[in-house]
Amino acid sequence: MTTFLGVPIRRSTGTESPLRGTETFPVAARRAVGNTVQRRNLGRATATIRAKRAAVVDEVPDWEALRDTASAVKADVMARLPELLEQLEAAVTARGGTVHWAADALQANQIVTELVKATGADEVVKVKSMATQEIGLNEYLEEQGIAAIETDLAELIVQLGHDKPSHILVPAIHRGRAEIRDIFLAEMQDAPSDLTDEPRVLAMAARAHLRRKFLSAKVAVSGANFGIADTGTLAVVESEGNGRMCLTLPDTLITVMGIEKLLPTFDDLEVFLQLLPRSSTGERMNPYTSLWTGVTPGDGPQDFHLVLLDNGRTNALADELGRTALHCIRCSACLNVCPVYERAGGHAYGSVYPGPIGAVLTPQLTGMAGHDDVNSTLPYASTLCGACFDACPVKIDIPTMLVELRGRAVDADRGHGLPGGWAAAMKAASWVMSNEKRFAAAESLSKAGRVLAGKKGRISTLPFPLSAWSTSRDLPAPPKQTFRQWWRDDHVAPAPVAGEGDPS
């Protein structure tokens, strides 16, 4: 077993992991696309967020320079991660905090549970956190008799609805207002009986419900958007104020942070606090930005614990290309511009990290074990249009990573039994294209393609085995003239006729 900074590293392979679904992406997506209500909710929400983001990004004259700087900072963090983590630990400890190292999800859950039990509390309030979703903390605490109460409105909706998040930023993006009202009436004991589906009324009901929890909670659990190595400062940005309540009122604060969330210096935070809100919520700045450094006597929690989570990140760090996935700041900009996510939704990915970044990050954290592995299908959940790369505030080249991971998934199956359908199709294509006469003969089939297309101008159905392609894709009708025919007619000079030519 390998170690990282003296901590044993174990790769999670459990089928029940929040990073691993039970269905391949094509199977799950086919069902999700048929949910017209969800597609309508996703389409409206992502279009709204895209428009807001575009407006505030256009206001920043040095936006591309900020992206370049952020990318360089994150690359520096990955190059010096062990050193920076030790620096962070020393700074947090010097300010009265306690640092714990968790190699995997189980170890992180055990650490948090022991800390909560030590306080005598049987419930905790939570700030929205992707790291705690990744390790399944809520479910683990429930098994140990501890209630974890989500205080972010969207996370509360998901929790009360016994649902799973479908978006990094807006976990309940797939739910409509009427659905949320019904969930509140069914699950929230103190919900008013005359509750309507007006957004303000729903928010006020959640506020009244949560206020009692804030005032009684002894322990809070949070994630962290950023950790500053040189000062030991942690940062959480949010829009509702629930995070501020959790981070200031309880006696004990436990923060679970992925080891990649580091920034070297406090000055680096300036760059990311310009990029993150514009990319995520379409705001110039987050309404609530909470910063804390260790423990301050008489102000805020008096017992602070930082759990540094690996859970596969060192596996990604060791991959020259894959480590760039660790640059992600969880803004969700790539989800909001992705045509695949907009139609299939987040649940189809089977992981707490959906969308383009999930399609590269999840396989990096969990590994891929050939085409039978559900996570091996995630890199194919893309049209490779490149919109995610254009939107990413830290310039993660997601399309290139997707192509690389597709290649690795195919390579993992080489030499194991008979070749699959995809491998057989590629071998057949290689055989045809490697010979001029065979390729020309294949081009002659274009006339049959035009017949199949008919007046529609596209081919929607093909016979088996090509039906595996056409069930989810249309092909344009072949042109009336192939490239070879066009070149021959327009560029190849006709042979001279006997007796013609220059009389001299």
Automatic annotation (TrEMBL):
GO terms for molecular function: 4 iron, 4 sulfur cluster binding; metal ion binding. One of its GO terms (biological process) is lactate metabolic process. Residues 423-489 form the Lactate utilization protein B C-terminal domain. Gene3D superfamilies: Alpha-helical ferredoxin (1.10.1060.10), NagB/RpiA/CoA transferase-like (3.40.50.10420). InterPro entries: 4Fe4S_Fe-S-bd, 4Fe4S_Fe_S_CS, FTHF_cligase-like_sf, Helical_ferredxn, LUD_dom, LutB/LldF, LutB_C, NagB/RpiA_transferase-like. It comes from Nakamurella panacisegetis. Residues 85-295 form the LUD domain. Keywords: 4Fe-4S, Electron transport, Iron, Iron-sulfur, Metal-binding, Repeat, Transport. Residues 1-21 are annotated as: Disordered. This is L-lactate dehydrogenase complex protein LldF. It comes from the Bacteria.
